[in-house]
Amino acid sequence: MSVEAITIILVLITFAIYTGIGWWSRVNDTSNFYVAGQGVPTVANGAAIAADWMSAASFISMAGLVAFLGYDGTIYLMGWTGGYVLLALLLAPYLRKFGKFTVPDFIGDRFYSSSARSVAAVATIFISLTYISGQMRGVGIVFSRYLQVDIVVGVLIGMAIVGFFALLGGMKGVTWTQAIQYFVIIIAFIIPAVAISLQLTGNPVPQLALTTSDIVDRLGQIQVDLGMTEYMAPFTDLSLLNVFMVTLALMAGTAGLPHVIVRFYTVKSVRAARWSAVWAIIFIGLLYLTAPAVGAFAKYNLIDTIADKPIEEVQSIEWVSKWETTGLLQLDDQNGDGVVNFTGGDDNEVVIDGDIIVLSTPEVANLAPFIIALVAAGGLAAALSTASGLLITMTSAVSHDIYYRIFNKTASEAQRLRVGRITLLIALGIAAYVGINPPGFAGEVVALAFGLGAASLFPVILLGIFDKRMNKEGAVAGIITGLSFTLIMIGAILSPSIIGTEEPILNSFFGINAQGVGVIGMLLNFIVSFIVSRMTPEPPSEIQQLIENVRAPELDEQPEQSVNEK
């Protein structure tokens, strides 16, 4: 049986399981649609958080970024893991104690303002749309390879499937589906990693094999011999400034991601939220500690397979011809010598999309067809789990935070769900377009969303919890400043891929790239929020008392109430 046939069978089996869970947990009320009725067990919620967190960027793209960027690619490991710890320890328990449905809900009630709620909802939409675009790219790559169709068709197929799962069960269905998807993701990542580690080093533990064998030294020497930079040489693709700024943007952005924060609202109590965070860190660590080894092993195998080989011989390799069909791998004998020149210079004859590294690695290593199919199923699970959560986050921002809480406070459950589902379909269309025309690797596109989160929501959430003097005027001014600045800078730096200009409007912001410029937006947000809040009236006394109660440890196990009930 062919790899494609095994892959389709395995994907259909996993999809049948997801569909069954979605049907079992289908909803017809907003509490279940938005926060799963706040009844998810901690271990299941931890797995769901991990699956939501380990998106296509983590499963498909992160090891590819490490493979192509080497040392510089580790910023994604440091930023995303450090940011999750920041979120879990500094913000999540307090937000859960506040007892709301969404991040805009928290901001609207904490700052007693429909305007604050509105700008927070708009920021949520921008963040989520950017993030989900990377997921659609990941889904499209998997389908384009294993159905042997163009990437555009692959993204459209993925759009239909993602929409189906999100529409069916809301947050309740998404949460339980993600809990199952986590185990598909981690098994699909670990098994190939162990197999390739054994094949290359004789050591079944990838992390130990990476540090105790000479594989990195061999890879570094091969790259130098081919005219590339040494694999572990620092600051070759990214400057020291950008390494710092992107890492910080990823960390702070993590603590401002609405679709991750809402996960802590789906459990019964603050204690449960904390334990969910502990389980999620354990689950996430399994993949993140393995990704550097996968990236190095994949790069070594790829170079060893095609570099300096006769081009006809390389094109006759089955996996090469099939990836060429997708348009994500191209070989071009520019100098006509009949040999594949895989270099870092102008004479490079290999054009490879970094997002195919993880998916192609089992094929390059000649692993069993079942393992190849398992990786495809894992990639789909990673992209689908995060995309579904993002869609629910966007729909809640529009239907709950804008439509219901601002424009139609008498809207029925059915009306709010209808608005949410219409929003979901519109968001899917936009995300599919960006997935077809991405401004970078899936991981790089997702990093833009973290920059937007750092610049818009993180400062206001942090100050809203720990600064009683922070008021509605400061929150609104801060979000608008940080979000506007970051959107403009990202648009200017990435203008060729976003608006089609021949040259970028700006090459960088004083040396800071698009993925790191959110830090400047974050600093502007903090400064503007602080200054404006001190120049305008302080919050009402009941709001200040509310914040004192939210921060009080002795109230940790009391039943949570919404601010309206208080």
UniProtKB/TrEMBL annotation:
PROSITE patterns found in the cross-reference section: NA_SOLUT_SYMP_3
Entries under InterPro entries matching the protein: Na/Glc_symporter_sf (IPR038377), Na/solute_symporter (IPR001734), Na/solute_symporter_VC_2705 (IPR019899), Sodium:Solute_Symporter (IPR050277)
Name of this chain's protein: Cation/acetate symporter
Primary localization: membrane
Organismal lineage: Bacteria, Bacillati, Bacillota, Bacilli, Bacillales
GO cellular component: plasma membrane
Similarity field: Belongs to the sodium:solute symporter (SSF) (TC 2.A.21) family.
CDD domains assigned to the protein according to its UniProt record, in alphabetical order: SLC5sbd_u4
Molecular function as annotated in GO: transmembrane transporter activity
Compartments where found: Membrane
